[in-house]
Structures are given as C-alpha cells and as structure tokens.
Amino acid sequence: MATRRTIESNEPNDRSGGSLRSRGTEMATAAAQKAAETEPGGAGSTAARAAEQQAAFDEAVAADERIEPRDWMPDAYRTSLIRQIAQHAHSEIIGMQPEANWITRAPSLRRKAILMAKAQDEAGHGLYLYSAAETLGVSRDELLDKLHSGRQKYSSIFNYPTLTWADVGAIGWLVDGAAITNQVPLCRCSYGPYARAMIRVCKEESFHQRQGYESLLALSRGTQAQHEMAQDAVNRWWWPSLMMFGPPDEESSHSEQSMTWKIKRHSNDELRQRFVDICVPQAESLGLTLPDPDLKWNEARGHHDFGPIDWTEFWDVLKGNGPCNDQRITQRRRAHEEGAWVREAAAAYATKQAGAPRADTAATAHGEATA
Amino acid sequence: MTTTSTPPDSRTEAALALGDDALVLSHRLGEWAGHAPVLEEEVALANIALDLLGQARVLLSSVGDEDELAYLREERAFRNLQLVEQPNGDFAHTIARQLYFSTYQTLLYGQLAAADGELAPLAAKAVKEVAYHQDHAEQWTLRLGDGTAESHARIQRGLDALWRFTGEMFQPVVGLDIDRTALRESWTASVTAVIERATLTVPSGPQSGAWTAGAGRQGLHTEPFGRMLAEMQHLHRSHPGASW
Ligand SMILES: [Fe+2]
Ligand SMILES: [Fe+2]
Predict the structure, then answer these.
(1) Residue A106: pLDDT band with limits 50, 70, 90
(2) Domain coverage including residue B69
(3) Whose CA is closest to A186, among A256, A273, A86, A85?
(4) Residue B6 is assigned to a structural domain of this protein
(5) How far does CA B25 lie from the centroid of its chain?
(6) N or C terminus of chain B with fewer C-beta within 10 Å?
(7) B138: which chain A residues are within 8 Å (Cβ-Cβ)?
(8) Considering the domain boundaries, does residue B5 fall inside one?
(9) ipTM score here?
(10) With 60 as the cut, is the pLDDT of residue A11 above it?
(11) Using DSSP, how many helices (H) and how many strands (E) does chain A show?
(12) In a domain, B244, yes or no
C-alpha cells in the first residue's frame, strides 16, 4: 500500500479502497454455469437439481477452481466462510487498539509514522474483509452487531495488553508473523473474494512483520534498558502467539470440514510448527531468547520441539477472562455508539442529495455511512 | 537544546511554525485511531495524520534534528497555531478544526509553491496532499451541516467554538513571505461558501481571544497542549540518548 511511500519518501497516499467485487458476477466453472442455467422443471426434478449443483461445486473445489459469489454453494460452506471472514475482519479492527495505544507515545517521528501507517493498513484490511463477507450476503452492520453483542469473536491475541513500547515491535514480529503463516495458505482458499483479499492483506502483513522485527532489533542492540524491554515483550507475547493457530488438531471443531472445502489448507498444528521453525533463527539474530526451556532442534523430525502450551489460559481468555476483553469490546462499542449520529447524518445527507426522500427509503437513514 | 536561548533565524522560524502546525495536528488526528465513527474514517483520518507527519518531518529536519525538535523542546518553544493543539472533541469539532486549518494550509502552500523561496519545493508537493484534506473537511461539513438536526447543531457548535482561534492564521510569521491580505480574503471566502452551502451560519464573534491573539507562534499555548506534549515526549525523554 502506498502509505509506506509516505514514510520513506513522503509520496501522497493511495486513497483508493480497491474493489474485491470486480469479479463478483463471474462463475468459477462451466459446470456451475450450466447448473445455474438449468431451469428447474417439475417438483420431481428438485432433488436432481440439488445433486447436480452439489456435484458442480464439489468438482470445482476438487479442481482447485475458485468459487465466486454468484456460484451455487452449500449453505454450510457459506455459513462457515461468513464466520471465518467476519472473525478475521473483527480481528483487524480490534487489533488496531493495542497498537493505537502507543501512537501518541511513539519515541521517534519515524516510528510514529510507521505505526500510524500500520494502524491505517489494519483498518484497510477490515474494509476489504467486510467487503469480502458482503459478497456472501451479509452486511457490515449485521456483522458489527454480532461483534458488539459478543455473538462473533475476534482473535484472542488482542485481549493481551501492550504494556511497553517494545510490545509494538513484538506484535509486529510475532503477531503479524503468525498471521502471515496462517494467511498465506488462505491466498489459495477456494472462495475467490476471500482469496483475493488475502493476497493484498498478506503483502502488507509481511511489511508489518519486517518493521516489527527491525524495531525489536533496534531495541535489542540499544541501551540495557531497551534490550530488557524487548526481551520482556517477547517473553509475554511468545506463548499467546503460538495460541493464535488455534487449539490442537484433535480439539479443533471447524478444521476438518474447512480442509475438505479448501478454505483451510493446513492443520493448526502444522502451521504452528512452521511458525516456531521460522521464529527460532530470527530470535537468535535479534539477540533475544524465547521463553521455552524445551525449545530445541529435533534432527529426526527436521523441526524444533517445543514445550506444552497452556491451553487452560487459551480457553479462559477466549471465554472472556483475558486481561483486556472488556476493555477492547467496550471501546469498540463506544466508538460505534458515539459515531451513530455521524453515520445517520451521512445517510440523511445522501438521501437528500439523491432527491426528495420517499417514505419507504427513510429507513436507509439508519444504515451505514457511505462516505 | 539551544532553541530557546539563541534567537532563531527567520528560516528556522518559518520552518518551525509550519512544521509544528503539521506535527501537532498530526498528533491530535492520531488520537482518533480506534475511535472513529466509521471504518472509512479510520483510514481517512490516519491518512491525513500521516501526510501531516510527513510534512512535519521534512520541515523540522530542514532546520535541525527532527526528534530533538519534536521531543526535547519545552512547551514555550513550540511555534504552532493554538488552533491545531485544540483537543479533538466530537467528530464535528474535529471536522471544524480540519475545515479551518486545511483551507488555510491549502492557500498558504499554494502561495509558497508559486513563489521561489526555500519552502517552494515542499509546498508544491504538500499542496496536493492538503487539497485532499480540504476536500475531506468540506465534504463532511456539508454532510453534518445538511444531515440531521443533531449533526447540524454539533458542527455549528464546533465552528463557533474554534472561530476565535482562526485570527492567528493571518498574523505575520517571521520568514514567511506571503500576501496575508489575500490569504485572509481567500480563506474567508472559501470557508464562508462551504459553511453556507452546508446550511450553517458563519460565526460572528471575534477571531482572536483577549490576550492570546497570535500567541501560538510566539510560544504561548493553551492548557491542553502541555498534557499533549507530556504524553508525546514522555518515552523519548525517559531514555536520554537512546535511538529507536
Ligand atoms: Fe492486518
Ligand atoms: Fe498487520
């Protein structure tokens, strides 16, 4: 995204939001096209038609083709995607909070610019993802409602606090790093709009990861106090980052079906292992240690072994008992409630601009601002 | 730091005035992160804040070390307008501040870009950015003014409350060779047109306070500014000599 050019060379920012829906009317496969075109005959052909649609879908997924918004898809596939994309979108916007906590205290103007650009990117990710979810027939308003009422979740990692400046670096290195490990395979996800959103998001996340690493490196090589600050942050963020990959495979409720649908491509434990293997040499180059005495290279497996994860803490935080659950959702709700009059004004203005308001369009005044 | 003990030259004065305006307003806009009324505004406000921070960095670096200037000067050494240090208030208050300031900045940079002074290259580049800031502020002034009764009342309150900080923009600044009469006339015409199109009323009170007129440029600020700096400078000052 062009925001980085602002930091490096002070170029004007990219104001364009980009569209994920440009291909929204396409259909993935000839088979799906054919299934959609087939006019339903008598009542007796309904079952046959359903089977045909299912077969076209299965075939497309098996052939690694993209499912597009207009294609027929099983209800459960749609529901599962909405759940996953919404949770991802919510994570982007809640994830702004722990970092925004340091924007006003950033210790140099360069770091401040990088952090502001990152917060802006995360808001942008939220926008792409809500748009991707909208292609499945849910509105951003509905999804935000579910977030605010606790019916949909966001990544539990953001329920941990950013206590020092070094936490900003640790989040970039570990949390954005874990997000990338999770999301790179999603660029090949079977649902087109989600996969395309992920390609764009991943590019920016890897930028965040490098900046976080670089920020930690500066601290690690800085004064004694800075080095200690960096180590303390890594100590606190390491285990929660490993938990970002979700529960162990044998306890993961959504994994298996998501793999069959090619929404997901690797299991939680596979991705976690990949992440550990990436981080160990990076921690070494940072001159920092990872807080796990059991961490060591296993020649036979070709991977690093690591110690047991405290899943009790994971479930506890997930259930709402983390250090910042209340704080995060309260701030989100407050921003939304305090912004209601702004969104109403924008909608009312748009209605006036579109011509004299008719009785049946008055309801749009309560919708989301289009600005 | 020597900025308070030796009188700065006119080039420094001009760069500090414009640089501090951009730095301080960028900081205030940065406070919106995570609190904006709609996701699109999270992006837009951060975008504007980033543009301003970029301008501040170029300006401050042209007359010293950007971090020393931002983090180690005392409140009385800052040269920004009092307008930009005013707390965000509600979204309407922020938009009113944006309207007043971005209109000023667009006109000022327009003049500087057209001249061939030292600030011309920066101004030529920044004028494109601030034109977007001005458009953003105008669009929202229209939406809020001609939106609902509540938004109308709120934006009018914001415009009224900040009006007395606008006179300072037209005070002379050492080192800034501009046509202040033309600046004032164009600013008034532009702001008036937007306010009236938005079905709002141009504030009628004085454009400066009893003894604070033009004071920001001389280092006299309002109470909230000290707290803003305390927050902004705390970490940097806690680790003297450290690099980040
Ligand atoms: Fe993101
Ligand atoms: Fe990120």
Answers:
(1) very high
(2) 11-238
(3) A85
(4) no
(5) 5
(6) N
(7) none
(8) no
(9) 0.95
(10) no
(11) 16, 2
(12) no
